[in-house]
Structure formats: C-alpha cells, structure tokens
Amino acid sequence: MPSEKIDQIIQEIKHATAQTKEELEAYRLRFISKKSVVGELFAAMKDIPVEEKKAYGQQVNEVKLLASEKFKELIEQVNQTEKKSKALDIDLTLPPTQVPLGGIHPLTTTRHRIIEIFERIGFNLSEGPEIEDDWHNFTALNFPENHPAREMQDTFFIEKNPDIALRTHTSSVQVRVMEKEKPPIRTLSPGRVFRNEAISARAHCIFHQVEGLYVDENVSFADLKQTLYHFAKEMFGPKTKVRFRPSFFPFTEPSAEIDISCLICGGKGCNICKGTGWVEIGGSGMVDPNVLENCGIDSERYTGFAFGMGIERIAMLKYQINDLRLFTENDIRFLKQFRSLV
Ligand code: DAH
Predict the structure, then answer these.
(1) pLDDT one-digit tens code per residue, 226-252
(2) Average pLDDT in the 82-87 region?
(3) How do the domains of the chain map onto residue ranges?
(4) What pLDDT is stored for residue 98 in this prediction?
(5) Cβ–Cβ under 8 Å, residues 285 and 306
(6) Which ligand 1 atom minimizes the distance to the CA of 193?
(7) Measured at the alpha carbon of residue 273, what is the angle toward residues 270 and 275, in degrees to the nearest 5?
(8) Which of 173, 231, 248, 251 has most ligand 1 atoms within 8 Å of its beta carbon, as the pocket-test mutant?
C-alpha cells in the first residue's frame, strides 16, 4: 500500500465535513465501517513485507484513530446544526394560535342565578335522587291512588317494579327534606326530572326544575307572593310584574300558577305570550296539611309554601330561546352565543 494513498486518506479525513445525518452516514461508510477505506488498509496488511509490517500497522492504527476522532467531532457538529435549525424553524412573526375558550351552558348559568337569588334571602340547597320511590314522588305528596300523573304515559317506571320511577318533579325533594329536618325549613332543590313525553320544541322527556319550600310558624300566602315577586324582579328585571292564577296541585292548597309579564312585549301582547301579555313560569301554593303530616310535621303548628319552576322555561324567557331541543343538542353555534355570560 503506497504511503501516498495513506496520506491522501489522512487528508480526506482531516477535511471531511458533515451537516446532515446523511453526510454523517456517508462519512461512516467511507472511513469507519468494515468495508471502508480504512478497513481496506487493514486488509492490505497481509501483502506487506514482514519487516515493514510493524511500521505499517502503527500507521494504519493512527489513521483509524484519526478517523474515529473525526467521526465523534462530526456527530457533535451535526447535532449542533440540527438544534440550530430547529430553533430557526420558529417563525416569530406568526400570529399566536387561538386557544378556544369554553363557555358555561345557559342552563347552568340560569341555575346558578336562581340559586344565588334565593340564597341571598336565606334558602339553603338540597338534593334528592333522580330514581325515586312512589312514596316520595307521589304518595307523600297527596296524589290519590288513581291520579293520572302516576300513569304510564307520564312516568318512566323501572321495569318490573312499579314502586320505583324516575322522578317526575323535584317536589319529591320537599318530602325528603321535611322527613329529615325540623322547621324552620327554607330550602331550594334544583334538579333533573323525567317525563314520558315525545320530544318537541315545547316538551322534552328530560328537563330541569327548581323547587322551593318554606315551612315555619305563620308562613302565609303573602310570603309566597313576596318571595316570588322578589325572584321575578331579580331574575328578569325591575319592571317585571307577577300574577298568580288559581290552579290545582295535590300537594298544595290553595294552589296557584305563577305568571310573569311578557319580557318581549312588556305586557302588550305578542306571539311569545300568545297575545295575553303573560307567560307562565311555574306552580306554587301553600303546602297541604296532609303533606306536612305525611312527613312528620305538625300541621296545627306549622304552615308552609312551596313552588316549582322549570329551569329551561326561565332560560328560554330570559335569553329568548324558542326551542327546548337546543339545550341538549350541543350545537356549538347555539352554545357559543352564551360564552360571555358568567
Ligand atoms: N311539581 C309541580 C310540577 O312538576 C310544580 C309545582 C307546583 C311545585 C306547585 C310546587 C308547587 O312546589 O307548590 O308540575
């Protein structure tokens, strides 16, 4: 092996550069691998005359060392270049990526607002199960045995057990609270309720109610009226009027439906209030003495009022939503409109 060839290889190694992984690999193949030029120098050993073998061997070992030192250098170089080019990949002039902001569902906002209004006048919060027994949903609330609300078309019964159903109203929580606590009771029970109804713009099989209950000595219908009057003004604005229409519920006597003046036309009459100037927001009344007694409360000493309102209904009036289905469809175009509400 002529020594010029070795010198040439040494020069080549000294001047080698690599910017990329590919160039690094080319270097490795040419100078490091078994079949590289350095490998060939080792292979040529067998043809070297014996007296020159030692010197040749030393020389070739030096070349090998040089090649591998250089290889390490090049690896470091390529790593540095890669790092730099990665850093340069950042375009500082690009506008920032938008982080999509979530929003609170309008029903949640409405529920929070209702709770806030009643908490400020001394109501606490209570909850009950969505799967209820007949006693809490109907019997304790004074529903007669053959009341139509118990029938299959209204109530989702649990199969094979007519005693267990999905609660049809939050009035069941009234019973649970009165069974557990002694008056004075002032409680608000928001929750999900279920009715066996076809889904349409005005009806749904799953919706939300909020129940209110106040039991103490000397609670009167005037207290009920004032409380709901206060609520309507806080919720819908100071100009809102409230009207009580005589009605019937098995668990209240007397009973009344609660109307508020139409928010759209202010009471003049429009298509939202069907020309009447009034819209219904719920039911109410004085707790029937039978219900108090069913729950272990002395009806001679205590009286109470109760009310139940639909949360969807209140949200629809407040935000002028005309289709109940929008609340559960998760259409982002609908939900987006409530993003700024807290
Ligand atoms: N539970 C009734 C319903 O779902 C609403 C209701 C009416 C609740 C009168 C009450 C009440 O507490 O006093 O239709």
Answers:
(1) 999 999 999 999 999 999 999 999 999
(2) 81
(3) 3-89, 106-341
(4) 83
(5) yes
(6) 4
(7) 50
(8) 251
